[in-house]
Amino acid sequence: MTDQRILSENSHPKPRWYNTIDPITKLLMILDFSLLSFSTHRLLLEAGFISVTFLLLLLSKVSPTTLKALGFSLFLILTMLVIQGLFYSKNQVVLLTILGVNFYKEGIIYAATLGSRVLVIILSTGFFMVTTSISENAKYLEQTGLSYRTIYLLMSVCYILPEMMRNMHKIQMAQKVRGTNPQKTLMQKLKSILPVLIPLVIKTLDQSMERSISLQLRGFNNPKRRALATPYHYRLAPLAHISLTMIAILLIGWQIWSKINLFL
Amino acid sequence: MKMQGLNHANIWRFKLTTATMTLIPAAVGINYVAKALAEGLKLPVWLGSLGTFLASMLAGPVAGAISGFINNVIYGLTLSPISTVYAITSIGIGVAVGVLHAKGWFSSASRVFVSALIIAIVSAVISTPLNVIFWGGQTGIAWGDSLFALLVANHAPVWLASFIDEFVLDILDKVCVAYLAFFIYRQLPQRMVRFFGDDQQ
């Protein structure tokens, strides 16, 4: 959210190379990279996909949000390597022994393959996250013909959240002033959430009602609506969409064909 | 018991009116804030589906399903990419809550517990294949994964171990969220329940 907000606040940023790629092409790239990583079991190929997506990210920018997502996933991949290395059902060949505990080759390879796929998804999505802004996405999606109601649904969350966070801090401060103490047990903690959550939810829903009435009054349902122009000029967008969609269809078709062949 | 937001016969009717258009983003925001609160208090639950529960209870299963779907897509494209695939689970939760609420399974504390059990089963059934495909069966929560490791070490099938890992986490989370949603829904002003509920009729 942070990256998107920062980018949206910067109304006229200097165009970089990644600004010439439209948001839909970037989303299709995530799909294609994910399908490519799922279509192979070779670790060398997976390493190649990780390198390409990592390079894309390095050439654009690395954000704290992407690093946080990577950190969480790397920890989970590490636990996966331990659990599958020890207990994977097809384990046979001992790869290494640490403190008398055997880690098996098959389990480690299986966990490494799954981990690589997750990394490819995170890195390719990270590229989308750091190189597009909320307003750019909204304007481009409307230009491509997506209904503005759907776009409002998708994009308004990004604007509502900061308002909700501010409301939450206000309510928390008010509860602290009234003498709410830090809670220790689980039940105490759950009970302590209620004085914050109830006013927050009611206030949020109340603001939604107001927003709904405002939208009606401002003619949001007007069918004669003109889409706003995006701030960047995108190169070869239709060609990129067709090529990436074709690659995705081919990869899905290949996967389905491989599965059918297993039963034949 | 408070008046239900939707008639039983109309639960699948859905119109993307301005009221639903503003309710759904609010529900996604509630999911996000409830999750942040749970993380801040270091609770062993996520609470990240509270908004989806409330949207389903107020405007029906379709609105709840859309809230859940958008929640995971936005969360996935801004904070945690892998969350996107769990949008399917959120759709399932939204539909289950909407149907159970319309059938009166959120009318008393004892019924809420049964609803929470059903929703936890729905969530675990949908999440288990995703956990197996992406994480080899793990959930990423330490004590759930310890249980998974113990079961796999004792030669339990991966699918069963993964389901149990997911279910024990889901049952605690969904019971807490269901009671929170039940309690909050009862506190909502009648005009609010009518505003979002009547919109779908």
Automatic annotation (TrEMBL), chain A:
The keyword Lyase does not apply. Signal peptide: none annotated. It comes from the Bacteria. It is a multi-pass membrane protein. InterPro entries: ABC/ECF_trnsptr_transmembrane, ECF_transporter_component. The chain crosses the membrane at residues 43-63, 69-88, 108-134, 234-257. Pfam families: CbiQ. It is found in: Membrane. Keywords: Cell membrane, Membrane, Transmembrane, Transmembrane helix. Its main location: membrane. This is ABC transporter permease. It comes from Lentilactobacillus fungorum. The lineage of its organism: Bacteria, Bacillati, Bacillota, Bacilli, Lactobacillales.
From TrEMBL, chain B:
Signal peptide: none annotated. The keyword Transmembrane applies. Keywords: Membrane, Transmembrane, Transmembrane helix. The chain crosses the membrane at residues 12-34, 46-66, 73-100, 112-134, 141-161, 167-185. The keyword Transcription does not apply. This is Membrane protein. It comes from Lentilactobacillus fungorum.
